Amino acid sequence: MDRSGRHxxxxxxxxxxPDRVLRAMAAPTIDHRGPDFAALAREVLDGLxxxxxxxxxxxAFPASGTGAWEAALVNxxxxxxxxxxxxxxxFATLWRNLATRFxxxxxxxxxxxxxxxxxxxIEARLAADTGHAIRAVAVVHNETxxxxxxxxGAIRQAMDAAGHPALLFVDTISSLASIDFRMDEWRVDVxxxxxxxxxxxxxxxxxxxxxxRALEASETAALARAYWDWRPMLENNARGFFxxxxxxxxxFGLREALAMLADEGLERVFARHDRHAExxxxxxxxxxxxxxxxxxxxxxxxxxxxxxxxGQDADAFRRxxxxxxxxxxxxGLGRLxxxxxxxxxxxxxxxxxxxxTLGGVEMGLALAGIPHTPxxxxxxxxxxxxxxxNSADKSH
Length: 396
Ligand SMILES: Cc1ncc(COP(=O)(O)O)c(C=O)c1O
Description:
By secondary structure, the chain is α/β, with parallel strands linked by helices. About 45% of the residues lie in helices and about 15% in strands. Pyridoxal-5'-phosphate binds near residues 144, 174 and 194.
């Protein structure tokens, strides 16, 4: 196995951690009850509001994304409450399973794992719920298993059109800081996020952004909560502290990552992700392979899932790429196991890193004997060159 040079970590999270962030984390851990910590906590919790596009509080648990999923539910709901969830793919299914284990009455709108949540179907379901039994609608913004991004703004409009008061919970785990998400404009009640994707950090921080209606619901919610309880977290955070030991060094990293995002500008970060996603799709089509997501308005800008021809083993292909080029691609999850591989193009990423990634895929396709047409990388190069030329023209 050739291990010289950098490993290409092109799974859709955890993503590559920039050197700046690594250096920021390589600092002595400080007293989490002292004044320096309070300044750090205030700065990062405030900075996160910009990324979620919210004026409401954002809290950071020492946790993976799954913990933040759980926190969203246990703080707002009571046993037996009905929740409408949408089967966009593997992660939506895991969130549904988690909700079911808490005794919530989950209604799962079936999906084919090739598109986002359909606003029309949500509207129809809510309109039929004239007694308003549904307490919450929960949607995964960017379904990391399929590369389909749901249109949250349209889902909010659908809920409004149905005149339904359900809370709206959104998993932004693989969209935050990669694909535009607007907590306040879309009146999302709880947004769930975590550190290891667009925020360019290692795993270990799980976020809840909490809207006013969710906070109100948390006063009467009866599901048991202890570690995930928002109340002590919010009370302590207001003074710059945590109710238990925080992930201090990850917060050092978060401060640096937020500074990087602010330097580049969020809108430019989103445009960069859009560009890399479009270049990737052009490569996939030029190879004669299929993008799993069928709905062009829902293509994910943070990853692309590539469907291999029937009879080809996507995991065998991934093993070839890892052995030959020291690059990790995302595996197919759940019912997509062996059928797709996923290219992560999110986080700390640029044009040349994308070309390296696609070059590795193209060489891997040849080595693994997957039927394809060479030239996908060249198609991506042409797109990236055009995009540069157009932006240079505009800046003259
Ligand atoms: C969309 C989405 N939701 C939830 C999760 C679960 O997060 P974690 O593995 O950090 O618990 C993931 C993980 O990749 C994800 O992509």
